[in-house]
Amino acid sequence: MNYYIHVPFCASKCGYCVFYSVTDASAELQKRYLEKLFSQLETQTEKAETVYIGGGTPTLFDAETLARFLDKISTSLPCGEETEISIEANPETLTREKIAVLKKHVTRLSTGVQSFFPEVRELLGRKCGQKQLESALAGIAEAGFPHWNCDLIYAVPGRGKEDWGKEFDFLARYPVDHVSCYSLTPEEGARLYGKLAPCGDALAAELEEVTRSKLAERGIGQYEVSNYARPGCECRHNVNVWRGGLLRGFGPSASSFDGRDRATEAASLTEWLAGAPPAADRIAPGARLDEIFAVNLRTTEGWTKELWDKVPHADLWQVRREKAEAAAKRFPGCFVIAPQRIKLARKGLDFWDTIAEELLS
Ligand code: SF4
Fold this sequence. Notes:
By secondary structure, the protein is of the alpha/beta class. It is built from 14 helices and 15 strands. It has a nine-stranded mixed beta sheet, with helices on both faces. Strand 3, helix 3 and strand 4 form a beta-alpha-beta unit. Helix 6 (161-171) packs parallel to helix 7 and helix 10 (285-296) packs antiparallel against helix 14. The protein is globular, with a radius of gyration of 20 Å. The structure holds iron/sulfur cluster (SF4).
């Protein structure tokens, strides 16, 4: 089982963010959240292949609470030596003490750096000073986590190829083995929605090329539209979820997948605490398979027959081949279809959104 835990607290709201979180992280609210979460975690019996702790800002908890929170997760969920335990961390919330707590409990640390330039973080509404950032990253490097991801944001107005390339020069100071790069496209509901000049497709493609070549110099290759890793350092949690793996989510706005249906917890801490039931997302089995098929085409490996056969309630590989062949006719040069593999070519990855629409129609 893949477990996801959503921590719904942030110190403030970043301008591009639509993830659910509240900025009232009072001790009383934290206590009520943790009590309910702990009672739910205690009932879990399925072996944890991965645990992903996201948010919100899980590292907003003070060091003592963070230790109690992580202790509870690793003792309540059936974790083993092989379990991947990831946590999202905001550099400005990290202290040496918290880093030591994280080191004791997690196998994978994901740092929300977004930019090494203070003026970009300012524009994004990230409250992280340069000294705080450098001190946190130095502390993480010194602690030496088994896996370390860094999130970066590109396509920021006023920043060109050269600026974007410099982000990787800063990044090269740290032993990260995974990088996630997201384009700045604030969605509806985000404070910056509709307020930024969009980055054109041509510049976006050039920036992505900078990303690929800068990371390739360090042996970090692209394995998904937005994700890059050294071989063997991919985020197992995400890979499993993209391939239709079972997911059980806890906390406000967390999603679960039982092999057929998805369910999403209320995106409201108050409602979640009051026991609001999760919203069910039931669609026809064929439509669900189409969705899983499309999602994993964002990866550079795509599907093999062997992987597809492991999808819960998978239909025949031949069905997938026929769908891919039909889509390939509409999108020439975008698919690579072999007897045992279906994946998107470089051009196809660039047009994934449009191809996915076609596959889901
Ligand atoms: S981007 Fe992260 S830190 Fe910023 S508001 Fe969203 S969840 Fe919180």
